[in-house]
């Protein structure tokens, strides 16, 4: 027996065709893809190519049969593990280098080829199989693959790891009246009777999670500018919504042009098409040549708010940025998945600036990046931007607001530290060095470090590798200002950062603070009446003004003239309300006093969101008056976008009888032309819950108003959670504990949220324990955002002590529970923990 001894990043491993390999390296055979297995395969496998074919039947109940040929060079003759997360019965035939493998060894989601079936050098493995359905997203008239982060192995056998990039060649057989789209151009299309065969050109080197195809009854539209043609595929039937494609095409083109100019690299893939899908799990997914979008994010209502228009442009720019950051250069392992998301969000924010010159983009980044990041960073379930990952099966739990939104906050500070010109030079070198390959954050930091004298490694350690955010407490004593930065986890960390402080008095003065130590002291030019923190919005953390400044802000924030300062200080107030430095009644009074006069759409949107979050804490004696004042603003606020947002929060929060009657009349007459069809459907759900005796009639009437078949399917799924029959609601909840009943994840999340509606809190506590018990399976069978969304829908509307005790008991009984999954629960349960501590 010949034994090859290898020394490398995964240590000392013995390889042979016998079971000694398993004895020496048990992690290779773990379910999923262990880091050890991935490291070994990366060292052993080169020149990987996949040839794939799928036979897609018209009926979604009929299995899809597949055939794959894997071609690769192997460093030596050895055992090879191929990943396939399906039942053994779905492996129909394995032929290794022309020889059938009689008894296929299949363990823990791996097809294990013995060394006797492989050769040193070129290998060809052919596998006939039945495709798994989990990530095929099959609907009656269409299907689409969504394989991020480790779901390719649920569809076809492969080497599932991001650093084994491969050329994919795809063939689809499908109904003749369906269209097909994939990462590359169609090379040939042949129709025979009611079936057709579509062959696609080979791809550029791609990670498995970026391979994709969509097939079904789709409309197609092309757009050409400056010699470049892109195509959109969609199912939307509303002509007014479809007309928005011109805007979407224009924003795609603008994003491509900006990125080519900034990076110095032409668009690096064969084509750029996109597909807009109902019920899509994410906002978008950056498959090269076949980017997927959720229809609600692309096709807006007739009267979109500025937030909605900005969000669409940023979404398009985000997914387009991924073509360079994530697709051209991909992380080596999913612990660095944040490196693709930080660039996508950071550059998206820069790309949209010239598209919306009327918007204050510093203010917008505060509202999006900073506020979203704080929403997780303040919880007990917060995490570092960079998180350890032992197995690819847990990669979906890495995702969250921290990697999407704290990371670009960090990136802004890094660029500020090293300078824009140096940063751009480093980015261009990084992309050229690792094109069509893989890189780590450390690889990038080494390049950026070479462009500056600043200590980027130390900066990166605290901002990237450590969890949490600082609390910055302000104190004045005459003409002395003192700012203390505190690490809430008592590790003694310092978050280096710069921000502005405004001194108020007979004259206002702005000073620049550079926190290079945990204590900052400064002699002031005069004795201020108050000191306002972070007025440029560049700081990050919980800013705690002294008591006089906090009280003044709560009573006067709307008088601050500068939009960025007003946005930032409103966020400061919100964090202090959450920290219980401001009472709920004082906070809501501050919001409904300042909001009527607010002229800035982004500030008004922020204040409206804060108002929605505080409604349940208002003293019962004050509730009716607050609802009346909100309703008045829905009718006469000077900003149409604010009226829309206030009406949306009002119809989800109003409980007083007079206000519910107003909502019922509004729904009957559909009299607010600024509300869209989905708004009236949402209102129907809310009214059905508030008016149980009329619930069946309300839902029947609303269903009759819907003519689009995809929206009707959505209504039929979600409306089951708005009925008044408790037994039916219990049956509905129990049905969702089975994976096959929760395949369309956004709709499932909506059902769970309505089942746990605030007005049903007492009767829905019973759902918490079984809902948490199934969370591990939700993570195993769902896509990356589903565990957090499931937990948030299950827990987010609960404030009671009994609900709190259920969550605490569940976690206490499971000391070895997955830390990543526990964080998702703690993030979702933040309102519950805050209310009970």
Automatic annotation (TrEMBL):
Residues covered by the Peptidase M1 membrane alanine aminopeptidase domain: 252-463
Example GO biological process: peptide catabolic process
PROSITE patterns referenced in this protein's UniProt entry, alphabetically: PROKAR_LIPOPROTEIN
Taxonomy, superkingdom: Bacteria
Keywords, ordered alphabetically: Aminopeptidase, Hydrolase, Metal-binding, Metalloprotease, Protease, Zinc
Catalytic activity, as annotated: Release of an N-terminal amino acid, Xaa-|-Yaa- from a peptide, amide or arylamide. Xaa is preferably Ala, but may be most amino acids including Pro (slow action). When a terminal hydrophobic residue is followed by a prolyl residue, the two may be released as an intact Xaa-Pro dipeptide
GO molecular function: alanyl aminopeptidase activity; metalloaminopeptidase activity; peptide binding; zinc ion binding
CDD domains assigned to the protein according to its UniProt record, in alphabetical order: M1_APN (cd09602)
Residue ranges constituting the Aminopeptidase N-like N-terminal domain according to the UniProt record: 48-210
Listed InterPro entries: Aminopeptidase_N-like_N, Aminopeptidase_N-like_N_sf, Peptidase_M1, Peptidase_M1_aminopeptidases, Peptidase_M1_dom, Peptidase_M4/M1_CTD_sf
EC number in record: 3.4.11.2
Family: Belongs to the peptidase M1 family.
Name recorded for this polypeptide: Aminopeptidase N
Organism: Bacteroides fragilis
Organismal lineage: Bacteria, Pseudomonadati, Bacteroidota, Bacteroidia, Bacteroidales
């Amino acid at each position: 027996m010949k034994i090859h001894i290898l020394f490398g990043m995964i240590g000392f491993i013995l390889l042979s065709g016998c079971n000694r390999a398993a004895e020496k390296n048990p992690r290779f055979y773990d379910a999923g893809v262990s880091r050890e297995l991935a490291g070994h395969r990366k060292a052993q496998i080169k020149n990987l190519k996949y040839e794939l074919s799928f036979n897609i039947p018209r009926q979604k109940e009929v299995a899809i049969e597949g055939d794959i040929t894997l071609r690769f060079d192997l460093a030596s003759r050895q055992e090879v593990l191929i990943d396939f997360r399906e039942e053994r019965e779905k492996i129909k035939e394995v032929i290794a280098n022309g020889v059938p493998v009689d008894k296929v060894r299949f363990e823990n989601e791996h097809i294990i080829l013995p060394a006797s079936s492989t050769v040193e050098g070129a290998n060809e493995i052919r596998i006939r199989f039945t495709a798994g359905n989990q990530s095929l997203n099959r609907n009656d008239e269409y299907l689409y693959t969504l394989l991020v982060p480790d779901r390719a192995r649920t569809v076809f056998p492969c080497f599932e790891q991001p650093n084994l990039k491969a050329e994919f060649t795809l063939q689809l057989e499908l109904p003749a009246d369906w269209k097909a789209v994939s990462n590359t151009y169609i090379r040939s299309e042949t129709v025979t009777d009611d079936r057709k065969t579509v062959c696609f050109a080979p791809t550029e080197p791609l990670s498995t999670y970026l391979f994709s195809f969509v097939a079904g009854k789709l409309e197609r539209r092309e757009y050409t500018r400056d010699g470049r043609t892109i195509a959109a595929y969609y199912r939307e039937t509303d002509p007014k919504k479809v007309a928005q494609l011109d805007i979407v095409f224009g924003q795609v083109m603008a994003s491509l042009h900006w990125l080519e100019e900034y990076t110095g690299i032409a668009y690096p893939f064969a084509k750029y098409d996109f597909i807009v899908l109902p019920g899509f799990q994410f906002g978008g997914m950056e498959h090269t040549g076949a980017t997927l979008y959720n229809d609600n994010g692309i096709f807006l209502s007739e009267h979109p708010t500025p937030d909605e228009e900005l969000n669409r442009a940023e979404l398009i720019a985000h997914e387009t940025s991924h073509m360079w950051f994530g697709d051209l250069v991909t992380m080596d392992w999913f612990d660095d998945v944040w490196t693709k998301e930080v660039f996508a969000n950071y550059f998206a924010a820069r790309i949209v600036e010239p598209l919306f010159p009327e918007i204050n983009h510093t203010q917008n980044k505060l509202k999006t990046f900073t506020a979203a990041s704080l929403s997780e960073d303040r919880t007990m379930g917060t995490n570092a931007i960079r998180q350890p990952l032992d197995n690819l099966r847990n990669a979906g739990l890495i995702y969250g607001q921290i990697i999407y939104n704290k990371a670009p906050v960090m990136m802004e500070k890094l660029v500020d530290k090293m300078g824009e010109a140096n940063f751009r030079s480093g980015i261009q070198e990084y992309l050229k060095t690792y094109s069509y390959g893989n890189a780590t954050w450390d690889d990038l930091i080494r390049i950026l470090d070479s462009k500056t004298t600043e200590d980027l490694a130390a900066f990166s350690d605290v901002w990237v590798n450590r969890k949490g955010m600082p609390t910055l407490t302000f104190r004045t004593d005459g003409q002395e200002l003192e700012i203390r930065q505190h690490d809430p986890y008592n590790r003694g960390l310092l978050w280096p950062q710069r921000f502005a402080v405004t001194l108020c008095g007979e004259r206002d003065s702005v000073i620049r603070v550079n926190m290079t130590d945990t204590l900052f002291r400064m002699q002031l030019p005069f004795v201020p009446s108050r000191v306002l923190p972070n007025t440029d919005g560049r700081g990050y953390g919980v800013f705690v003004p002294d008591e006089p400044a906090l009280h003044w802000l709560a009573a006067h924030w709307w008088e601050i003239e500068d939009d960025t300062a007003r946005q930032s200080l409103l966020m400061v107030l919100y964090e202090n309300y959450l920290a219980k430095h401001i009472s709920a009644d004082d906070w809501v009074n501050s919001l409904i006093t300042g909001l009527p006069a607010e002229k800035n759409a982004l500030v008004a949107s922020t204040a409206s969101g804060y108002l929605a979050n505080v409604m349940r804490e208002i003293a019962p004696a004050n509730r009716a008056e607050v609802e009346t004042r909100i309703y008045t603003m829905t009718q006469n606020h000077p900003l149409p976008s604010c009226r829309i947002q206030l009406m949306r929060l009002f119809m989800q929060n109003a409980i007083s009888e007079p206000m519910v009657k107003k909502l019922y009349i509004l729904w009957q007459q559909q009299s607010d032309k600024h509300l869209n069809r989905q708004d009236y459907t949402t209102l129907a759900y809310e009214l059905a819950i508030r008016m149980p005796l009329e619930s069946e009639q309300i839902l029947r009437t609303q269903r009759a108003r819907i003519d689009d078949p995809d929206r009707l399917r959505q209504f039929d799924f979600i409306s089951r959670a708005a009925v008044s029959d408790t037994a039916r609601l219990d049956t509905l909840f129990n049905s969702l504990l089975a994976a096959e009943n929760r395949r369309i994840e956004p709709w499932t999340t909506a059902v769970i949220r309505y089942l746990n509606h605030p007005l049903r809190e007492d009767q829905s506590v019973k759902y918490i324990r079984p809902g948490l018990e199934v969370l591990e399976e939700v993570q195993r069978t769902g896509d990356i955002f589903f565990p957090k969304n499931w937990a948030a829908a299950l827990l987010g509307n609960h404030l009671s002590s009994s609900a709190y005790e259920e969550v605490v008991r569940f976690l206490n009984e499971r000391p070895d529970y997955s830390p990543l999954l526990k964080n998702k629960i703690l993030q979702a349960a933040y309102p519950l923990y805050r209310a009970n501590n």
